[in-house]
Design a protein that fits this description.
The protein is of the alpha/beta class. The chain has a domain of 154 residues: Alpha-Beta Barrel (TIM Barrel), CATH 3.20.20.380. The protein contains eight helices and ten strands. Strands 7-6-5-4-3-2-1-8 form an eight-stranded parallel β-sheet. A two-stranded antiparallel sheet has the order 9-10. Helix 4 links the parallel strand 4 and strand 5. The radius of gyration is 17 Å and the shape is globular.
């Protein structure tokens, strides 16, 4: 089972590589669910991180129904990440009724090729996950990052298992949110090919200017312990 680390900074990406993670998903601002990283971070990571690198493309926090201008921004960011040499794109677009925006997703898939395409946790907002799964299979999306429509993947593991069974080998179901040393064996035992976690720790910061949002970084020790648990499960 592969371990993907959700890296929210350059240091998190470095720590993931040092710890032996299989892949990173680069993003910024995990406190709001993640948004597209800055150009500076993207360029620095592509120059120094050698493990496979996917990048989250999300122009803002909030819902996943985007204006035409926001959608254009998404396309520009995908093209930039292709030029910089990333391995895959992680994004997702919904209609106003929280169904998959098939037309726009298809357009993003075409722009992304030949990179891998992960439909991110916008999937956790859909009302009918089984129908949405089939739509993404038909579109030939590579994987779906999901918590099983629950607050975390452990709570959603029943649906995750069902989606995996329906998907067969046509698409990868990538469980994410709240996976840690204490529950990783449940996903290994269920036969998932990949899991997604930030494996983060809080950084002490006594200087607060705007709010009290906790600053975190992916932990080398936590990643190594999870990898060991995967190997021993």
């Amino acid at each position: 089972m592969k371990l993907e680390i959700c890296a929210n900074s350059y240091q998190s990406a470095i720590n993931a590589q040092k710890a032996g993670a299989d892949r990173i998903e680069l993003c910024s601002e995990l406190s709001v669910g993640g948004i597209t990283p800055s150009y500076g971070l993207l360029k620095k990571v592509t120059k120094t991180i050698t493990i496979p690198k996917n990048v989250l493309i999300r122009p803002r926090s909030g819902n996943f129904c985007y204006s035409n201008k926001e959608f254009q921004q998404i396309k520009i960011d995908i093209k930039l990440c292709k030029k910089l040499g990333f391995n895959g794109i992680v994004t997702g677009v919904l209609n106003s009724d929280n169904t998959i925006d098939i037309k726009r997703t298809k357009e993003l898939l075409e722009i992304t090729k030949p990179l891998s395409f992960t439909f991110h946790r916008a999937f956790d907002c859909v009302k009918n996950p089984r129908d949405a799964l089939q739509e993404l299979i038909n579109l030939k999306v590579d994987r779906i990052l999901t918590s099983g429509l629950e607050e975390n993947a452990e709570e959603g593991i029943k649906l995750l298992k069902e989606l995996k069974q329906i998907a067969k080998n046509k698409i990868i179901i990538l469980p994410g949110s709240g996976i840690n040393l204490n529950n990783v064996h449940k996903f290994k035992d269920a036969g998932f090919e990949e899991i997604h976690t930030s494996a983060s720790k809080e950084i002490l910061n006594n200087t607060i200017f705007f709010d009290n949002t906790k600053q975190t970084v992916s932990s080398i020790k936590k990643i190594q312990k999870i990898l060991k648990a995967i190997q021993n499960a």
